[in-house]
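Design request, tokens follow.
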């Protein structure tokens, strides 16, 4: 019982990290698109 609970926690954390990484990559792509639209706006 304990082992399956630990595995569940690990999978949940991994899923959250995957979602976070996905959001970060989407944000960086959006930022890149904005930079391409306004070259003088790049930081």
């Amino acid at each position: 019982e304990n082992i399956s609970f630990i595995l569940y926690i690990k999978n949940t954390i991994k899923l959250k990290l995957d979602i976070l990484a996905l959001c970060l990559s989407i944000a960086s792509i959006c930022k890149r698109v904005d930079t391409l639209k306004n070259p003088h706006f790049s930081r």
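Comment from the thread starter after seeing the answer: thanks! Helices lie at 2-37.
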